[in-house]
Amino acid sequence: GTSQADVAILIVAAGTGEFEAGISKEGQTREHALLAYTLGVKQMIVCVNKMDDKSVNWTQPRYDEIMKEVKAYLKKVGYDDTKVPFVPISGWHGDNMIERSPNMNWYKGPTLLEALDAIVPPKRPNDKPLRLPLQDVYKIGGIGTVPVGRVETGVLKPGMVVTFAPGNVTTEVKSVEMHHESMPEAEPGDNVGFNVKNVSVKDIRRGFVAGDSKNDPPRETADFEAQVIVLNHPGQIQNGYAPVL
Fold first, then answer.
1. Among 19, 72, 110, 132, which is disulfide-ready with 210 (CB 3.0 to 4.6 Å)?
2. Which of the two residues, 234 and 51, has the higher pLDDT score?
3. Beta strand 7-13 with 43-49: parallel, antiparallel or unpaired?
4. 120: phi then psi, degrees, rounded to nearest 5
């Protein structure tokens, strides 16, 4: 789910002790923000929730304190903190979610709905050659071999002849499905399953990449550049550190 999202809404609890637990080293606020960025969700809205809590009582100083700390962490993760709106809300009472709250007249920014409406849909790389890394391959009775993965670039359509690399297996796509519904085509960002002709589950596996056999199909390579994000490393990473992959 997260890997298909264009925007993440990070919910931060404003209550005394709750925010501190979430932003701590092992806290969920940190984990969710890092996970969203790692999975490629580059736009974010932060909701400072539970502004109605007795320890907060709709006040601005607590909101400012939380915003300052979360902004610093988001910047560290890789987000442009100047483009991340912080909306103080009460999910329980509905304040600042759809309509502006009379309890927080000091807040002049957008409501949650307005912040969502202001999100710019990213340009999808439909015009590039097809690249679909396989997350899994299933054998489904009565249907056959069904590889599953997310379209990264290009478009996948029924009737296309695709090549899987490495392995150089070429076959025709019989159908494309998302959430058990047939699709005329799958675009970048879509998580899909597609049925292929005359290919065994032993011929292709997780990690293979599917491409259009007629338009720059994927090939084996000697080396490639990668962005590696390390989650919860037990030690310290410094110059000269030699990881084992």
1. 132
2. 51
3. parallel
4. -95, 120
For 204-219, what is the mean pLDDT?
93
- CATH number of 146's domain: 2.40.30.10
136 beta partners: 148
pLDDT of residue 3: 62
* Tokens linked to 157: 């359509």
Residue whose pair of structure tokens reads 């925007």 in the numeric block:
7
Spatial contact of 132 and 156, defined as CB atoms under 8 Å apart: yes
Q: Indicate if the pLDDT at residue 229 is higher than 90.
A: no
15 and 110 housed in the same domain: yes
Quick: pLDDT tens for 130-170. Answer: 999 999 999 988 888 999 999 999 999 999 999 999 888 99
Distances in Å between the alpha carbon of 53 and those of 17, 50, 88, 98, 129? 12, 5, 12, 20, 52
18 plus 63 within the same structural domain: yes
| 49 CB burial (10 A radius; 0-12, 13-18, 19+) | buried
**Same domain, yes or no: 135 and 66:** no
Q: 218 lies in a domain?
A: no
Can you give the pLDDT at residue 112? 97
- Residue 149: count other Cβ atoms within 10 Å of its Cβ: 24
Residue 2: predicted pLDDT: 58
Residue 1 has pLDDT above 60, yes or no: no
Residue 237 lies in a domain: no
CA 147/CA 73 separation, integer angstroms: 38
What CATH number corresponds to the domain at position 47?
Answer: 3.40.50.300
pTM: 0.72
**Domain tally, the chain:** 2
Q: Domain residues for 39?
A: 2-118
The verdict on 51 and 110 lying in the same domain is yes
